[in-house]
Amino acid sequence: MNPPKAATANKSDAGAADGGVRELISGSEAISHACRLADVDVITAYPIRPYDTVMQYVSKMIADGEFDCEYIIAEGEHSQFEIVKHASTVGARVFTGSSGVGWLYAFEALAVTAGLRLPVVAMVGNRALDDPGAFGTEHNDALAVRDLGWMLSWVATAQEALDTTLISYRVAEDSRVSLPCAISCDGAFLTHSQVMVDIPDKATVDSFLPPYERGKKLLHPDNPITIAPQVNEDWLMEIRMQSDQAMRRAKGVIVEAYEDFNKKFGRNEEPFIERYMMDDAEIAFVGMGTLEMPVKVGVRKLRQQGKKVGFIRIRWFRPFPTEELREALSGVSAVGVIDRDYGLGSPYNSGVLANELRSALYAADNRPKVISYIAGLGGREVSTEDVIHIADMALDAAAGGKTDDQETYWIGVRE
Amino acid sequence: MSTHSVEVVYRGVFQGTLAKNICRGIVLAASIDGKIGMAFGRYSDSPERNGIPAKQFAVVSDTEEELQEVLAAYQPDAADVTIVADDTMCKGIESWAWYGLQPINSMLKGGGTLLITSTQSSNKLINDIHRRDEPYDLAIIKSPASLAGKFVYKDDHTDVKILGALAKIAPHIVSLDTITQAIQDQWKDDKKVAAAKKAHDRTDTVSVSAGQGSDRPTFDFELPGWTKMGECVSIPAQSVRQDIPGREGGYTPGRSETFRKFSTRTMRPVINFDTCTKCTLCWLTCPDGSFDITPDGFYDANMEACCGCGICEDVCPVKECVTMVNEEAFDDNACQWEMWTKDKESYSAWLLGKISNRPARSHGFHHLGQYAEEIANESA
After folding, report:
1. Does any CB of chain A come closer than 8 Å to the CB of residue B226?
2. Closest residue on chain B to A119 (Cα)
3. Gap from A146 CA to chain B (nearest CA, Å)
4. Using the beta-carbon criterion (under 8 Å), do A234 and B98 form an inter-chain contact?
5. What 8-state DSSP symbol labels residue B107?
6. What are the φ/ψ torsions at residue A199 (nearest 5 degrees)?
7. Pair B167, B133: CB distance under 8 Å
8. Chain A residues with a Cβ under 8 Å from any Cβ in chain B
9. How many alpha carbons fall within 13 Å on the CB side of residue B230?
10. For residue A66, what is the DSSP state?
11. What confidence tens digit (pLDDT) does each residue in B305-336 have?
12. How far apart are CA B21 and CA B43, in angstroms?
């Protein structure tokens, strides 16, 4: 995200200007600051890299007396997510997170958290699903919950990680939504890399983020209720329908939250997608997360060659920005979707994002060709050259060449 | 061309294997006759909860298409025969939260047969069973409710006795020849075949006329839609206490109006208020909050709420102050405390009558090891 206008490079000066500070921190540390600023009540931790760096910063803040919260080290990810789920029912604002198979070890808890509509906010440090043992980034971990009622965002910078965490609390805890939200951060590229980040002051955050209020849904002796009874065919469809409606409402609530965030924090960000050089683009890349860096550089190089190429980075995967993408891609003739994930056995053997996008564009008046690329698995580098290669293929497809939009191309894989 | 449906109503967990064996036997016998069929259960009836009335079905047809006509729906519209594996369900059944209480014969076709295992007389059973507009037949296999369930299978031949009786009352569905062949194929046990034949010969049928039977009220209710339900699967608690009109100082815990589940009960506690020390243990440990608090401080088991689990009897420190008695000994859900308050001597006599003539429990055990003792006694 772009830095706010009031921010300066000097920590003490920034404090004087708007009450915030500017510090050199990693994406994980940025999220820990968001937790502190959001005054999170309960945090649960269990080590797995790369997400666990956030817990190192959280625990240091607590030890230093800068942050007051219940910090619980669970005996595994399942308990980690169960504890915050329950804490959320009694009105605690909660934070937790995981990576790769740790996230999957918590899967049962993840499903019930969404099923019970509890606004747990979690960081996923995207990591390949071992075995074979691998800790580089892949998006399949967070994507595993994509149909269960979790809102899923992907961030590209440490600043965006901090901002999106604050936005996530506001949206997740909104009584019109009440759904859990995961913030996906590419392992290493984002979790471990340090850049200058504007850390806002508490008063500004408080003006943006109201306290978490459960009202009549609060589990408390003074408000006797039961949560999660046994239901069968007699109730479950109505409950799923309510979750579906909440996810639909989340789109509007996310828009509201970005409008207010932009105003309070001096930003100008579009809620669901970031458009890069899309105004006159004839072909477009679509991707998520830190892929944006090589893609943006590649787009600039292609532009220098006179090729009208643009890029759309998806910020929110759930709720999926269907209308936004249909509108944004209405003028292009071909789309190259770069998935940092795999969808083995899926339609056209494509990545998850490519198939979601195909589905979103199916009803579009002007349906561009969608070409699926799998790249950067296990944290492998996606180079600017790769990006240029992908663009040339997409241009070839747009011109009716031999590039097949019913094929999926693996980029940067040895033969 | 024909299709026939048999409904088996049984007690969840306690009789699941029994119901399965009956439905399998029907379908196997029909296949020997060249028919096709399916044996299946209503899974959502919660057959894996202790004592909850649950259903299995056997549907047999001459052709695949005819079978599909029935199987396209969740369950058959109507049953040619309804088999009741436990006579305490004759008072009506509440399978799961969305049904309300339904008569045991609600699915039976006019002119169909209700086949019950029971040691009670037909007149007594007819008094329990809800009346209908059309006449139907009632057949009884003289036998107590069998425990042939998920964890304990007392192989008392009840399954084959029911199959033999079915061949008598519904030879158009299964003949004695095919059912005995199916039993022999399944179990390779001459004793079972003999038991089936004996039940076939001994089963008698009586006619029940239109309008004959119980007029005890049933209940059902409308389920709310998603726009009317509370959000986030959170449900307001029932009130801690509700006053009872005419019982100043006493109260009842709030209970669900829509899920009463007392038809799960195969036995009920009878309480000797004369020896009760008001120790509160029954009230504290009752998992269903089914004890009302009376104005004079007693704990009165409410028969519209009690599931009959027997925990109160188990925890009561006073001998025979709380005694579980088989449900068949009762005709209504009347309040015991009111009976006692009105006339203590009559109540005392009534209580003694119930306890001294206590039928064997159909399901569940009073103490650990009771089943082994029963088996040993029966073998001796």
Report:
1. yes
2. B232
3. 19
4. yes
5. T
6. -100, 115
7. no
8. 115-118, 175, 178, 216-217, 219, 224-229, 232-235, 237-239, 241-242, 245-246
9. 17
10. S
11. 999 988 999 899 999 999 999 888 898 999 99
12. 16
Contact A105, A115 (CB under 8 A): no
- Largest pairwise CA distance in chain B: 68
Three-state SS string across B177-240, please?
Answer: HHHHHHHHHHHCCHHHHHHHHHHHHHCEEEEECCCCCECCCCECCCCCCCCCCCCCCEEECCCC
Enter the tokens of residue B58.
């056997």
Residue among B44, B237, B240 minimizing CB distance to A226: B237
**What is the C-alpha to C-alpha distance for residues A351 and A343, in angstroms, rounded to an integer?**
5
pLDDT one-digit tens code per residue, A82-133: 999 999 999 999 999 999 999 999 999 999 999 999 999 999 999 999 999 9
Burial of A373 (0-12, 13-18, 19+ CB in 10 A): buried
Measured at the CA of A210, the angle between CA A205 and CA A216, to 5 degrees, comes to 160
The C-alpha atoms of residue B300 and residue B203 are separated, in whole angstroms, by 41
Distance CA A33, CA A147 (A): 30
Distance of CA B34 to the CA centre of its chain: 34
ipTM of the complex: 0.86
Is the bond preceding residue A131 a cis peptide, omega within 30 degrees? yes
CA distance B344 to B277: 17
* Dihedral pair phi/psi, residue B53, rounded to 5°: -60, 130
What is the C-alpha to C-alpha distance for residues A218 and B234, in angstroms, rounded to an integer? 9
Candidates A131, A52, A96; CA nearest to A378 is A131
Coil, helix or strand for A283?
A: strand
Alpha carbons within 13 A on the beta-carbon side of B345: 0
Contact across the interface for B223 and A234, Cβ inside 8 Å: yes
Place of tokens 């025969």: B81
Does any CB of chain A come closer than 8 Å to the CB of residue B224? yes
The one-letter amino acid code at B50 reads N
